[in-house]
Automatic annotation (TrEMBL):
It is found in: Periplasm. Residues 222-284 form the SAF domain. GO terms for biological process: bacterial-type flagellum assembly. The keyword Nucleotide-binding does not apply. SMART domains: SAF. It comes from Oceanibaculum indicum. This is Flagella basal body P-ring formation protein FlgA.
Length: 354
């Protein structure tokens, strides 16, 4: 009986020690829910096994939280979340987000990672977090349009076309560590509506490529004469002033001047900018003679050249046929304007100025 009395306290002491050890093990688990903490995110669990052994308390590495980290590669490392991580402890703990996307690591995730990797860090608040972004660039809409245009020219044998996306705000991200390449897939074109649809994948031939669907319209381009430089009102257009430009045929109005010979030698009615199609209302003939002007009438044959004075009865540009009154004979004759106030009369065999 005495032996039994001595044994009981030892058993009670052993139970107390076991109970104390259980509390020590359970304490973090009980405190964690109060702080809003949880386990590692599912995306990081595959990296947990190889780093399972916790460092002893004396080896805990003091660290601080990062704020927002831009990840250049395909992995998230411990140093992306915590500042003060040495190179030898900068383990891979997760896959990086998709280009252009962001992932949030909450206080519970961060605390679990700190415990797993022997870091001296505890959350100050359940609101502690770190944002991880995958560094990327957005493909400009102009680049997508150029790829589609080239694909349409190859596929449908267009000569000169331009394309416009209907959804120009489309966001296609390419990671900064990947090549800036694209591939056009599932391209279709309706000739009746002149519309297309396609899938754009970037980077091309990359297992982690992103894809977006785009739609738009095709425009046929034609060459039209334009001014090579800006001009003021009253300027006479010379051949050196004319250049060519490709424009969308659908955008041209009915009064657009399509031939350079209809521009050269004319006079501008208003200030005109360079590289813009010209309308017939922008120009007027370059009059060398106006009605009522005193003109010189010239008649030329193989043997002689006669002149007389007359009054122009019509306006005339170079090459125009106008009527002129001979001031001497008062007769009305017809001649061609060949220069400023100079009218040439051409007769067959006989000169009739009188």
């Amino acid at each position: 009986m005495r032996a039994n009395h001595k044994t009981a306290p030892r058993n009670a002491s052993g139970q107390l020690r076991m109970h104390g050890l259980g509390l020590a093990v359970l304490a973090p688990m009980l405190v964690a829910p109060l702080l809003g903490l949880a386990t590692l995110p599912a995306s990081a669990q595959q990296y947990q096994t190889r780093d399972r052994v916790l460092a002893p308390a004396a080896a805990l590495l003091p660290v601080a939280l990062q704020n927002v980290t831009m990840v250049q590669g395909r992995e998230v490392r411990l140093g992306h979340l915590f500042a003060g991580i040495s190179d030898d402890r900068n383990s891979i703990i997760d896959h990086a987000p998709q280009p252009g996307e962001r992932r949030i690591y909450t206080a519970s995730h961060l605390y679990a990672l700190a415990q797993q990797h022997g870091l001296d860090w505890r959350p100050n608040s359940p609101l502690d977090k770190v944002a991880i972004e995958r560094a990327s660039v957005v493909v400009p809409a102009e680049e997508i349009e150029r790829e589609i245009r080239d694909a349409l020219i190859t596929q449908d044998r267009f000569e000169e076309i331009d394309v416009d996306l209907f959804n120009r705000s489309v966001q296609l991200h390419i990671a900064t560590d990947r090549p800036m390449t694209m591939r056009v897939e599932q391209l279709s074109y309706d000739k009746r509506s002149q519309r297309f649809q396609a899938t754009i994948t970037a980077p091309a031939n990359d297992p982690e490529a992103q894809s977006v669907q785009v739609t738009g319209r095709v425009y046929t381009l034609i060459d039209v004469p334009v001014l090579a430089r800006a001009v003021l009102p009253g300027a006479v257009i010379q051949q050196s002033d004319v250049a060519w430009k490709k424009v969308r045929q659908a955008s041209l109005a009915g009064n657009i001047v399509a031939q350079p010979e209809d521009i050269i030698g004319t006079v501008t009615r208003r200030p005109l900018a360079a590289n813009r199609p010209l309308r017939s209302t922008d120009l007027k003939p370059n009059l060398l003679t106006t009605r009522g002007d005193r003109v010189t009438i010239v008649a030329t044959t193989a043997n002689m050249r006669l002149t007389a004075t007359g009054i122009a009865m019509q306006n005339g540009a170079e090459g125009d046929l106008i009527q002129v009154t001979n001031t001497g004979s008062k007769k009305i004759i017809q001649g061609k304007v060949v220069g400023p106030n100079l009218v040439e009369v051409v007769t067959r065999g006989q000169v009739a100025l009188n």
